[in-house]
Specification:
heterodimer, A: mainly alpha, 8 helices, B: 1038 residues, mainly alpha, 3-stranded antiparallel sheet
Chain lengths: 247, 1038
């Protein structure tokens, strides 16, 4: 499984993007390790009800998941624009409204507001896109729309919310994100882990074990949660700074 | 040629170019060579060299094909084992046990072993008469009344109103549920073996003991009417002047056979004619054909069953007292009306016996009502043989394993256990005699039979105990009757086990050959540096030397040790010899051998796709859901190429790559909406391929699909040509006119077919049939005859334009400039690709014709995706990676499902043989069925060379080697699948689902591999040769 293994030096032309470091205060250092535990506990706690009736349970789980993710990004991660990134890069007409407040307000608000904006963008923009992707990969077209949408929302909150928080919505930056051109870090690891986890989550669906949890979309969501934790861990530790290579 | 103007012809083109070159005195980067003396000789040499290299590559792949055939043959012959057929026959005067009650055996007049009940019999087989057709519909749960329900009530009515005259029971077939196999079972009383399933095309005479032969030996006059399969099995057994046989294979004809049987059977029932015959075998095919053609839930099925109902009522009226009437189905049909496998619907037929005398009984009053479902009180089809034999006073055939049917012997009051005990004892004794002989012939171990032997002893003890009793009561007789039946049941179980026994050494050797061949193919495909054509001669020579040595070793071994089967030894030694020879060849060229394991993401993705799919075939769930897995993989590939496209530096490549990748994903998903579910996928799958899940005709709206394809697809393909300005010359003629016209014709074919099917114009049926067959033949002629002549004579799709300096033109098209004008060759950027891809569209047309309307849509999408894939691999620079050929393998496998197929016997669309033909014609019939079944794989295999030829410079070195490499990679995909399914089938040979899932999957995998091998060699590589020769006419060989 090589997309995440090859170490490289700097890409040839552009100066390398540096991996995102979490904030250097003690709370951040501590909470970044607690967060995956909380996420997994939340999911484990809700698992039974998700299996029993996916739609309301997934919907209910979405709220605490959003809160946990917001807490995580606000406590541990540098918001977009807080570091050396040139200002021009993120000023696109459509996004101005959302990004601008994060730049104007400082202090705690400077973190909480971008976090909420990230939540908004990831629910409103990323979720439908992910739902479409899920349908392309074989999710039912005519039925189970609520299931698929909620599954997409969970993946989106897990994978894209932190990324939007640290990278904003700049087109060129997102091209690099989609193209796997950024060096791996904790946040990027979340995305890759969640996506791979959700991909692998499809494996047990066809098996004839007749288990409740095989129903749509439980395995996908489970895969995404597990992948998130593994990806975050791997991205923050031994894969940190590595570059993905296709050729 | 001095006028400086470009000439339209291509000889002129070369000359014009040479002149342009001379004028500008400039060495072109990638242009043509002048045809002066030395150059011409060199050119000629280049051509000879190419042809030789090409021939060697073809020879190499043929050699791989031979190894595949040998490996598959060896495995199959050990896997699909046959039962040993004993030649002994039962004799009238030699009963298997001493007869009690002072009955003298040996007289066919009175009854050979047991007093006979009937003088004559009429045995009617209604092909595919499923049990639930015959019993009243009872609404349970969500089940809806369907067209086949309550349409043939006569059997049930008589059984319930006159229980002493008739009985109706579920009649369980042993799979495979094909008619030939069933007839064997119904006349010999023994179990079928899987291997015979394929011989439904050309049945061979039964030489083991059977009921029909016994009747003939007893000088009974036998009449046969209907399905001609009987004549293949029993040649010359029937009264020639009364017998009328009809072609059984034309499943689109619902009435010829049935009307023929009816027309000839009723005159025989008249009292003036009853003295002319003793037994009539009638075989109606209409129900089966209605099922194949329309599916069971169709008005045509109701009509057919009503017709049968009427016939049997009439038969009952005309029957005389001494004649037994038997009506039965030889198998059932699945939800779509097909059969062959072992699903419940396919094995559950109906059996009904009727006589004017009050002879039949039930052992319990509860049994007076025929069972509501086939799960209750079923009898096996092999039970018919002993029952009929004893009722008609014949000896029980020697190999019989069935038990007499209780209802026929228990007496009208249902308490004649004495009679039942006698017939059960006779049957059991015959089975015991047969088992003794079989054990002698095959050397069976005693302990395998110990259980049945003790049951045999117990039954005989129970029988002997009755001797001292003066007047045994019915309960006294009941014990031995049941004990003998228990012995029969146990023996049957043992035999089922025994005949599912496998020849392990053969299977292992087959797997070994396939494994070694796979390793060779893998090294050839991915583990050699540089041009494969340079290495092929060495590989081939050593491989052949090895094979020859292997043959010598095999022959001498065969003679030295005569107890080894010669054919097995020979095949094994020859293959292993060849493989070892190639091994030394790889050692010889070891400097060029590299690690075949992948070193890039794309390599790994290819490996993971192939191996994950292969590993999945070990689980029945993943085998059942293969179509969904392929969808998942293809979309994953699309997603990866989106990512990869985003990585491209050139914005045009980026945009094009993204567009085609997303297009690829969307098309995959759209095609996935065409589904033909297998039984095991229920209820999670909804068939959309036909009008409904219980039909095999297309819905009316689906008829529009081929028209839409005919209008859209030529334009779409044209757009792939336009990008490089290759849409010119023969491409215009072929794509815009011939292909479109052919597609329109094929759409018209399916409309006419629907009109014929649905009887839209009653009375014009014959005309419609003739018209559609002619249309189909014309379409084939356009696709292959006109197509191949276009393909072989067409010039490369090029035009020369001279432009005045300063005008804008794509830089890669300009091959020479200087002075005030520049020469541009339009279409230069994709000379090889555009030229070769014409071949894909030709075969596409042929394949599209033989698909149902929904399949035409799916295969159209497949063709579109193939071109999209060319662009993806080009913009992402993937033509050297294995991903292109592997994805083509996935795509072919995916569209196999989307064209209405599954890895099951019952999903074979036999009727496709009659698209351009009225009757069976060899070799066309099997070819048509292969073209229909594996059309998608064939199309994708033909597309493989274009992956490496698309947008390559005309004079790039080693292109032929690249084609060989891509082809080998593509074959590698199918070879891995084949090896995996073979190993799983062998490993899971005791698995409950072997014949339902693993065996059909193994057979599909093996067949696909061989078909793709053949297509790769004789279509793709041959097409490459034609295409290269044509390109070289312009660009030269040096």
């Amino acid at each position: 499984m090589s997309p995440t293994t090859t170490a490289t030096e700097a890409p040839k032309v552009k100066p390398p993007e540096t991996p995102i470091e979490h904030l250097s205060n003690d709370t951040a250092k501590l909470y970044t390790h607690i967060h995956p535990i909380l996420i997994l506990s939340l999911y484990a706690f809700q698992f039974k009800s998700i299996v029993a009736d996916p739609v309301p349970a997934l919907l209910n789980t979405l709220v605490p998941l959003g809160i946990l993710q917001i807490t995580y990004v606000a406590v541990c991660l540098p918001p977009i624009g807080s570091d050396v990134a040139p200002a021009a890069e993120k000023r696109k007409p459509g996004e101005k409204k959302k990004i601008a407040p994060g730049k104007l307000v400082s202090g705690l608000n400077g973190k909480i507001i971008p976090a909420f904006i990230s939540l908004l963008v990831s629910t409103l923009a990323a979720t439908p896109l992910l739902m479409l992707t899920l349908i392309f990969f074989g999710a039912p077209i005519t039925t189970h729309h609520a299931h698929t949408l909620l599954c997409a929302a969970h993946i989106s909150l897990l994978a894209t919310l932190p990324l939007i928080y640290v990278h904003g919505v700049d087109g060129e930056r997102w091209r690099e994100i989609v193209a796997c051109l950024l060096p791996i870090d904790e946040v990027y690891g979340c995305l890759i882990g969640t996506v791979l986890g959700a991909w692998l989550g499809a494996v047990p669906i066809p098996l004839d074990w007749d288990r409740e949890w095989q129903k749509w979309p439980v395995t996908i969501v489970t895969g995404a949660y597990l992948g998130f934790v593994v990806g975050k861990l791997a991205g923050g530790t031994f894969l940190k700074g590595k570059q993905m290579k296709f050729e | 040629m001095d006028n400086g103007e470009p000439l339209p012809s291509y000889e002129g083109l070369a000359a014009a170019f040479a002149k342009a070159k001379a004028e500008k005195e400039r060495e072109e980067a990638q242009g043509l060579k002048g045809r002066t003396g030395d150059a011409a000789a060199a050119n000629k040499q280049g051509e000879v060299h190419f042809k030789a290299a090409h021939g060697l590559v073809v020879a190499f792949f043929t050699w791989i094909l031979v190894l595949h055939v040998l490996g598959i043959y060896l495995f199959t012959s050990g896997f699909l084992l046959t039962r040993l057929v004993l030649q002994q026959k039962s004799e009238c005067s030699v009963p298997p046990a001493d007869l009690a009650h002072s009955y003298t055996p040996g007289s066919p007049k009175a009854g050979c072993w047991h007093p006979k009940t009937f003088e004559k019999a009429i045995v009617i087989i209604v092909d595919a008469l499923r049990y639930d057709f015959t019993v009243p519909f009872q609404a349970t749960g969500s089940e809806q009344l369907q067209h086949f329900h309550n349409a043939i009530p006569v059997l049930y009515e008589t059984a319930i109103n006159h229980p002493n005259n008739a009985f109706l029971l579920p009649f369980i077939a042993d799979p495979p549920t094909t008619t030939l196999q069933r007839l064997k079972g119904l006349t010999t009383g023994t179990l079928p073996t899987f291997l015979d399933a394929g011989s439904n095309f050309a049945g061979t005479a039964i030489d083991e003991d059977n009921l029909v032969a016994q009747l003939r030996n007893a000088s009974k006059r036998i009449v046969h009417l209907g399905d001609d399969t009987w004549h293949a099995l029993f040649p010359g057994y029937f009264e020639p002047n009364l017998t009328h046989a009809y072609d059984s294979f034309n499943v689109w004809d619902l009435h010829t056979v049935d009307n023929g049987v009816t027309d000839h059977i009723f005159p025989l029932l008249q009292s003036s004619n009853t003295s002319k015959w003793d037994i009539i075998f009638g075989h109606y095919l209409g129900v089966d054909h209605a099922g194949h053609r329309y599916g069971p839930n169709h008005p045509a099925m109701t009509a057919k069953l009503n017709q049968m109902d009427e016939i049997f009522r009439k038969m009952i009226d005309q029957l005389d007292d001494s004649t037994l009437l038997v009506v039965m189905g030889d198998h059932g049909m699945d939800a779509k009306g097909d059969h062959g496998g072992e699903s419940d619907d396919e094995i559950q037929a109906a059996l009904w016996m009727y006589s004017k005398q009050k002879l039949f009984g039930r052992s319990s009053p509860a049994y007076r009502t025929p069972p509501a479902t086939a799960q209750e009180r079923p009898v096996a089809q092999i039970d018919l043989v002993s029952t009929l034999s004893l009722l008609l006073g014949m000896p029980i055939p020697f190999n019989n394993l069935g038990v007499p049917i209780e209802e026929a012997f228990i007496g009208a009051k249902g308490e004649d256990y004495q009679n039942l005990a006698r017939v059960n004892r006779l049957t059991a004794a015959q089975i015991h005699r047969y088992q003794q002989e079989y054990a002698l012939a095959r050397g069976l171990e005693e302990n395998a039979r110990s259980n049945s032997l003790s049951l045999w002893k117990a039954a005989n003890d129970a029988w002997d105990k009755l001797k001292p009793i003066k007047k045994p009561s019915r309960d006294h007789w009941k014990t031995p009757a049941q004990a003998f039946a228990a012995y029969q049941a146990e023996t049957l179980t043992i035999c089922r086990d025994l005949w599912a026994r496998f020849d392990i050494p053969r299977m292992l050797h087959g797997v070994e050959i396939l494994t070694f061949t796979l390793v060779i193919l893998a090294i050839y495909a991915r583990g050699l540096q540089g041009d494969r054509t340079e290495l092929t001669p060495a590989l081939l020579v050593r491989g052949i030397i090895g094979t020859v040595l292997g043959v010598l070793v095999g022959v001498s071994l065969g003679f030295a040790k005569p107890d080894l089967p010669l054919e097995h030894t020979l095949i094994y030694c020859a293959s292993i010899g060849g493989v070892v020879g190639l091994g030394t060849a790889f050692w010889y060229v070891r400097r060029r051998v590299t690690n075949p394991l992948p070193n890039s993401l794309w390599g790994w993705v290819s490996v993971i796709f192939t191996l994950a799919l292969s590993a999945g075939f070990a689980a029945n769930s993943f085998t059942i859901w293969e179509d969904e897995i392929l969808l998942h993989f293809l979309c994953t590939f699309g997603a990866l190429t989106v990512i990869s496209s985003f990585r491209q530096k050139d914005p045009i490549d980026r945009a094009l790559g993204c567009y085609h990748s997303i297009l690829f994903i969307v098309l995959t998903r759209v095609a996935s909406l065409s589904r033909m579910c297998r039984e095991e996928q229920m209820p999670y799958c909804k068939s959309t391929y036909y009008a409904s899940a219980t039909s095999s005709t297309s819905a009316t709206w689906q008829l529009a699909i081929p028209y839409a394809v005919a209008f859209l697809l030529p334009n779409l393909i044209r757009s792939y040509y336009k990008g490089t300005r290759s849409h010119q010359g023969s491409a215009i003629l072929w794509l815009d006119f011939a292909l479109r016209f052919g597609l329109l014709l094929s759409a018209a074919y399916w409309t006419i077919d629907a009109a014929d099917d649905g009887d839209w114009y009653p009375g014009y049926s014959e005309m419609l049939k003739t018209t559609k067959i002619i249309i189909a033949q014309i379409t084939f002629a356009i696709a292959l005859a006109f197509g191949y002549s276009t393909f072989s004579w067409a010039k490369p799709l090029l035009t020369i334009e001279t432009k005045v300096k300063g005008s804008e033109e794509s830089a890669e098209q300009i091959v020479a400039d200087g002075g005030t004008s520049s020469i541009t060759i339009l279409g230069y950027a994709n000379v090889h690709g555009s030229r070769y891809a014409l071949l894909i569209t030709m075969w596409y047309l042929a394949i599209s014709l033989v698909q149902k309307p929904m399949g035409a849509g799916a295969i159209g999408i497949a063709a579109w995706q193939v071109f999209s894939l060319f662009e993806i691999t080009d913009t992402n620079k993937l033509s050297d990676t294995p991903i292109g050929p592997i994805v083509l393998g996935l795509l072919g496998s995916f569209h196999f499902f989307k064209t209405g197929h599954q890895a099951t016997l019952s999903s074979i669309q036999w009727e496709s043989a009659f698209i351009p033909l009225r009757t069976i014609k060899y070799p066309w019939t099997p070819i048509l069925i292969i073209l229909n079944s594996f059309g998608a794989q064939i199309l994708c295999a033909i597309a493989v060379p274009a992956i490496v030829l698309w947008k390559q410079p005309p004079k790039k070195k080693g292109l032929l080697g690249d084609v060989a490499k891509a082809t080998a990679t593509h074959l590698l995909f199918y070879a891995v699948i084949n090896l995996a399914t073979t190993m799983w089938a062998g490993h899971l040979r005791r698995h409950l689902m072997l014949y339902r899932i693993f065996c059909p999957k193994f057979m599909t995998g093996a067949l696909v591999l061989l078909v793709v091998d053949l297509v790769a060699i004789f279509v793709a590589l041959l097409g490459t040769r034609m295409s290269f020769l044509s390109v070289a006419e312009v660009f030269g060989w040096t």
